[in-house]
């Protein structure tokens, strides 16, 4: 842990207080300029856009994933493994290949546009790629299992006697869900939201491929500073700010939950 985690993070913290060299190297000159640059309107806008799309992705995966996880947890046990495997198997394929597959499907000459035209729903191909919506679809697809699996684990642990007791006391199915099932699965909801929100801040390749570099998020900014601009100190400073923001979000989530998140849902 010290070698693979602590040392790299300490190194990133160290160079974040240095300056970029003339030829793209690092000058060992202490400076706070990198952190001051982050609070310029341009970079604040990128940070807000990143939080916005991460929040939207988290909500969409939650609303899509909860009913799916609930159904999987309630089907007969002999079919549950198959249902879970149907979620996991596609992710044995490289994520870049799956992203390119979505690009082919959503292109102007792709399957989706061809089907819509043949059905008479549209007269000309829709421009779906290189938009905010395309990035959102890619994010939801990539992170869907990270929401479903914690929810499934949390829902499966609920004993039927609690639901039966609520019904015996006069609760209808909706009220039993809201007062019993939903509170008991809150650890899974929080865990799933954390597992989706945090990676969605840094999935730069989805924005590059499906957004056509028109959608700039904080992950793209960090990648560009290290690989394109060769401004490692500024890229390190942005990375540190993002890590601090993530720690704050996790702390707030645990505080709102009111208890420690059940680590078994991970």
Automatic annotation (TrEMBL):
Keywords recorded for this protein, A-Z: Cell membrane, Membrane, Transmembrane, Transmembrane helix, Transport
Compartments, as annotated in UniProt: Cell membrane
Membrane topology: Multi-pass membrane protein
Gene source species: Clostridium aromativorans
Recorded family membership: Belongs to the binding-protein-dependent transport system permease family. CysTW subfamily.
Pfam entry (one): BPD_transp_1
Record has Secreted as a keyword: no
Cited Gene3D superfamilies: MetI-like
Domain ABC transmembrane type-1: 47-253
Protein name: ABC transporter permease subunit
CDD domains (UniProt xref): TM_PBP2 (cd06261)
Domain of life, per lineage: Bacteria
The UniProt record lists the keyword Oxidoreductase: no
InterPro entries: MetI-like (IPR000515), MetI-like_sf (IPR035906)
Transmembrane segments: 42-66, 78-93, 99-117, 129-152, 189-211, 232-254
């Amino acid at each position: 842990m010290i070698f693979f985690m602590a040392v790299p993070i300490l190194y990133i913290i160290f160079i974040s207080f240095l300056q970029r060299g003339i030829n793209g190297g690092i000058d060992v000159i202490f400076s706070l300029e990198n952190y001051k640059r982050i609070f310029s309107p341009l970079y604040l806008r990128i940070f807000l856009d990143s939080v916005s799309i991460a929040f939207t992705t988290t909500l969409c995966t939650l609303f899509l994933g909860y009913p799916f996880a609930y159904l999987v947890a309630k089907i007969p046990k002999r079919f549950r493994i198959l249902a879970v495997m149907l979620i996991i198997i596609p992710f044995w394929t490289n994520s870049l290949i799956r992203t390119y597959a979505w690009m082919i499907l959503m292109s102007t000459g792709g399957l989706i546009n061809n089907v819509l035209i043949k059905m008479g729903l549209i007269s000309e191909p829709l421009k779906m790629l290189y938009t905010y919506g395309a990035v959102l679809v890619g994010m939801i697809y990539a992170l869907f299992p990270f929401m479903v699996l914690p929810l499934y684990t949390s829902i499966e642990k609920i004993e039927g006697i609690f639901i039966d007791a609520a019904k015996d006391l006069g609760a209808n199915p909706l009220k039993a869900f809201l007062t019993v099932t939903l509170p008991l699965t809150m650890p899974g909801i929080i865990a799933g939201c954390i597992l989706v929100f945090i990676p969605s801040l840094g999935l730069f390749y989805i924005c590059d491929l499906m957004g056509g570099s028109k959608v700039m998020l904080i992950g793209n900014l960090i990648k560009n500073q290290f690989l394109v601009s060769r401004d490692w100190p500024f890229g390190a400073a942005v990375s540190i700010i993002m890590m601090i923001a993530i720690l704050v979000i996790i702390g707030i989530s645990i505080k709102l939950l009111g208890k420690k998140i059940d680590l078994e849902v991970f």
